[in-house]
Design goal:
The complex is a heterotrimer of chains A (about 375), B (about 190) and C (about 190). Chain A is an alpha+beta fold and about 375 residues long. Chain A has helices at about 5-10, 55-60, 70-75, 80-95, 100-130, 135-155, 175-200, 205-210, 215-220, 230, 240, 265-285, 300-305, 345-350, 355-360, 365-375, 380, and strands at about 15-20, 30-40, 40-50, 165, 170, 315-320, 325-335, 340-345. The longest helix of chain A is centred in the N-terminal third of the chain and has 30 residues, at about 100-130. Classes of the chains: A alpha+beta (about 375), B alpha/beta (about 190), C alpha+beta (about 190).
Chain lengths: ~375, ~190, ~190
């Protein structure tokens, strides 16, 4: 960032404090950033959040465990299936419930479809912030519509699915739906090739995204960053491979890692992760057993009477690799049907810790692009 | 992670420290030890716990608790859970921001919701509630104000600024003041009659 | 390649999509998938869940709900309000006198349908309920919520036939048990 105007050295300048305010098309929700600018460069940046705080943790302390499931849909309202997954994992750890085979495969299929949906849309929104007004978004949304139609046929609702239950899933997937999923998985690589032809070697994208917002790996680990942002900086940590929760150890997939940790790497890591998700989906669709029970036997009486479900006294922390990072639920139970403490570890909230560090020295336009690459959704940031 | 193993190593490194295993987590009796224990666990070559996954608080009626979940990204090992207990009226815990940057927003959230003051935190402000909010919402004895009932001080402020107050609202406020009660919202779980 | 080739490649992709969209139908790749609502609609999916409705068997008076209050207790945002009906002598009847659902609060989760032990409340497919007045029109009372079993068969055929079969089986088992009881009592 060299100064190119000699007159600037003799001018008496001031810094300007502005608000990239809560109502803004590029802040991915109601999110405010207090920026102090010197000309066009960012000197300091303080994020202000809490405009969408809905007190999810206190609501959950007053209703039963199953009744919190529709509220978890609304945390990361873009990928509701993975929020449900994390919550069911936490409760299953707390109450020692195991999940039957076919339900495990259905869960993995839903989680990976959610990852496809999220990464495609996020790349579209990043390009929205760059100025490519809505063309990549609508290309991505054409594919998202097919997958979201599948969610509607299976669970009843396009985005707020409320599909997972403790010990399995709520309703079955018919063979016709499985055939449609197989077709989507077969046609998706063609869409990815077209998307990459549109974007990856585009000179405008390269010049605006490379060397912008570089995140060194030590800072990323110390700041508790997870998800594609961490892997773009070169740290190999994916909870699907580390914890091996559910049945992910039966599938063969790789973890893409970035080299530099700039915005371009985060975009490209997401494209590669979509290709790996397709591999997992193909293997899961081959291996899924044709019949099987949907909910573990222990939990069948509680499907009709959720208010009687009383897990044993104790605590549990269940986490999944959601498309945005590590989503964890910390539950403390005291033997009653309502939890004593319910906490959400939201990835978007914690990934915002280093927003200031990444933006200092860049221009305002770069700050918007960096925020777009962190991939936040305000429902999670504010729970 | 084996709790007994961690406990013995910590007692070797810091003689005289007070630790107690609770279920399969480790409780630090003295809240001031947390920073040096966290730094030791991060640097020691046996554990290398360099990733703070979650920092949260909980209210157990007699004490407030702060719970830490630590993982290792280098060795890919599982969670080590540490706890610290403080009393409600003097809830002060040293901040972990010097060891893990990721504790910054989570400590602000714990302060906002429970009132636990973190010493040496670079930015000790509320994060979700607006500035000027009184009270700590997730404590068990928190009573929410009813947003549709006015109290005497609200009526006095409105009249001072020349805004007319309807008769039924001011009558209700006087009644509340006579009974000495605050306008408290109904507890959730009771559906309101239509 | 020369500087600018990436941009030209991207523009060729959009140009190709622009022209092929005229020649492909909606189902093929590259066709236009926009549906001109409200002149044409997408086909309804069977499991689509929107707001709830109460079920009656042949006559609106013959509703299955017994005012047990379980759906009101299970509802996460607590949008259901039930008052049991009493007859002239003050004895409680197995019917609701008031059954109010506040549609501005309901979040379409479907937990009331799962929790009901009497097959009385199910999720409907109605979503075109927009109105100009929030408090009068969006608070539904018992009369607005009652819909017949035929309506249920029309919107969700597989679920409705399964539930009818189950209820018929339960009825016949009960009748058989009563008949066996009567036969045993008739024997000396």
């Amino acid at each position: 960032m060299e100064k190119t105007f000699a007159v600037k050295d003799t001018m008496d300048t001031q810094t300007l404090e502005i608000n990239i305010g809560p109502q803004h098309p590029s802040t991915h929700g109601v999110f405010r950033m207090n920026m102090v600018l010197d000309g066009e460069q960012v000197v300091s940046l303080k994020p202000v959040m809490g405009y969408l705080h809905r007190n999810h943790e206190q609501i959950a302390e007053n209703i039963s465990y199953t009744s919190s499931m529709p509220y978890t849909d609304r945390l990361d309202y873009f990928n509701s299936m993975s929020n449900n997954f994390a919550y069911s994992l936490a409760v299953e750890k707390l109450a020692n419930i195991d999940v039957p085979e076919r339900a495990q495969y259905i869960r993995v299929i839903m989680a990976e479809l959610t990852r496809l949906v999220n990464h495609a849309a996020v790349i579209g929104f990043l390009l929205n912030d760059l100025g490519a007004f809505f063309t990549p978004v609508l290309y991505a949304f054409r594919e998202r519509e097919k997958i979201v139609d599948i969610f509607e046929e299976v669970s009843g609702s396009r985005m707020m699915c409320n599909y997972f239950r403790f010990g399995g899933v709520k309703l079955d997937m018919s063979p016709a739906i499985l055939t449609r999923v197989k077709e989507i998985v077969k046609n998706f690589p063609k869409f990815l090739d077209e998307f990459e032809a549109l974007l990856t070697r585009n000179e405008i994208l390269c010049m605006r995204c490379q060397n912008v917002g570089v995140l060194p790996p030590e800072l990323a680990v110390s700041a508790s960053i997870t998800g594609p942002m961490l892997r773009a900086s070169g740290v190999n940590y994916d909870i699907r491979k580390v914890d091996k929760y559910s049945i992910y150890d039966r599938f063969n997939f790789r973890i893409p890692l970035g080299l530099k940790g700039d915005v371009y790497d985060r975009y490209y890591v997401r494209i590669l992760e979509m290709r790996e998700s397709l591999k997992i989906l193909e293997q899961a669709l081959d291996q899924i057993p044709a019949t099987g029970e949907l909910v573990s036997k222990k939990m069948v009486p509680f499907l009709k009477a959720p208010r009687n479900f009383k897990p044993p006294v104790g605590e549990a922390y269940g986490r999944v690799e959601s498309p945005k990072g590590e989503l964890g639920f910390y539950l403390v139970s005291d033997g009653t049907p309502q939890p004593w403490r319910y906490h959400v570890r939201a990835p978007s909230f914690i990934n915002l810790t280093i927003l200031e560090d990444l933006c200092i020295g860049h221009k305002v336009a770069d700050a918007i692009v960096i925020l777009g690459s962190i991939d936040i959704v305000l429902g999670e940031v504010d729970h | 992670m084996d709790i007994a193993d961690v406990k013995s190593k910590l007692e070797q490194a810091f003689p005289g420290i007070a630790l107690r295993p609770v279920r399969d987590t480790l409780l630090m009796e003295n809240a001031k030890d947390i920073v040096k224990i966290a730094q030791f666990l991060k640097d020691s070559p046996d554990y290398q716990l360099d990733y703070l996954s979650s920092l949260t608080g909980a209210d157990y009626l007699e004490y407030l608790e702060v719970v830490y979940h630590l993982y290792s990204m280098e060795k890919k090992t599982g969670p080590l859970v540490l706890r610290v207990r403080v009393k409600h009226d003097h809830a002060q815990v040293p901040s972990l921001v010097s060891v893990y940057r990721g504790a910054e927003y989570q400590e602000r959230e714990t302060y906002d919701m429970y009132g636990v003051v973190f010493e040496n935190h670079p930015d000790p402000r509320r994060i979700f509630m607006w500035e000027g909010f009184e009270g700590f919402p997730l404590r068990k004895d928190y009573q929410q104000e009813d947003s549709e009932t006015l109290e005497m001080e609200d009526i006095e402020w409105l009249e001072k600024h020349g805004i007319p107050v309807p008769q039924d609202l001011s009558a209700k406020a006087e009644e509340l003041k006579k009974l000495g009660r605050r306008a408290v919202a109904q507890k959730p779980g009771q559906p309101e009659p239509e | 390649m020369f500087f600018g080739s990436g941009i030209i490649r991207g523009m060729l992709v959009t140009l190709k999509n622009f022209f092929t969209s005229y020649f492909r139908s909606a189902e093929e790749e590259g066709g236009v998938i926009t549906v001109q609502y409200p002149e044409s609609r997408l086909p309804e999916k069977e499991r689509f869940r929107n707001f709830p409705f109460l079920l009656y068997d042949h006559v609106p008076d013959n509703l299955r709900c017994v005012a047990c209050d379980i759906c009101a207790k299970e509802c996460p945002p607590k949008c259901i309000y039930i008052v049991r009906e009493f007859d002239k002598d003050g004895k409680p009847l197995k019917r609701p006198a008031t059954f109010d659902i506040d549609f501005t609060v309901c979040m379409n989760c479907g937990i009331c349908e799962e929790a009901c032990p009497f097959d009385a409340i199910y999720m409907d497919h109605e979503f075109e309920i927009a109105n100009q007045e929030r408090h009068e029109h969006l608070l539904y009372h018992k009369e607005d919520l009652l819909k017949s079993n035929e309506h249920f068969h029309k919107i969700r055929p597989t679920d409705a036939t399964a539930i009818d079969a189950r209820r018929r089986e339960a009825e016949e088992k009960k009748k058989a048990a009563v008949a066996a009881q009567a036969a045993k009592a008739a024997q000396p």
